[in-house]
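Re: the request from the purification team.
They wanted to know what the chain is likely to look like in 3D before they choose a buffer screen. I agreed to run a prediction and write the result into the notebook, where they can find it.
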Amino acid sequence: MTRRVRVSSPTFFDDRAANYRWLLTHEPVRRERVSHLFNATFVARYDDCAAVLIDSRFCRDRRTALPGARSFPLPIPKRLEFLARSMINADDPDHRRQRSLVQKAFSPKAISALESRLVATIEPLLDELERDRDVDLLSAYASRVPAAVIASMVGVSAANMPRFQNGLRVLNDGMSGWSMVRTILADLPRLIRFIRDLVERKRAAPEDDILSALIHADEAGHVLSDDELVSLVFLLTIAGYETTAHLISNGLLALLDHPL
């Protein structure tokens, strides 16, 4: 393998094992442009990865690394800045505080309830696949499962599912190219209003869902702010939707190629 590997290339995962070996051998630490807007430094060796995660000199929050800097590397509307300060970008002790509160909501009982709802969601979708001769696995099944699970986690009603699914589509498809401008100026504020309204309803009338548990989680008098709750819903959505949809789709394709 003589060509230079680009981590951000769309074909990187076509032969990921060979590409990872190339990085380990030739460029275990390399800086690369990952989009039109961002550069990133990639580390491939285990010891380097562990050092980055453990060493307190490395931080997530740009404001910690660069005093006076914005939370996001580019100017964005002030009303959206809190999204760049979500738990995933927070440093201790703030990260530890939020993590402790989130762990209270993701109790074994809550996960067990999600499991039963997941089974109830999957079975009708599988029945639909069995009836249809030709199907697009990604749209007909794989993308619908995480959408339903995330909606169940945050307690979205059947009546509001179309609005929520449209929000998932925006986060999935609208964060690249020129569509990002529309997403930032129009779609994201609309989705934020929807989630804030949902938080208010759950605060007034809690239900058996994880968002209600997050709203009422308390650790030594500490609670999650409204901004933190909204950013957590975004984090659940971004982390759980696209990645899971493609994993499910790839798993189904593997089963079709190698049936049990």
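For the purification team: DSSP finds twelve helices and two strands in the chain.
Please add any questions underneath this entry.
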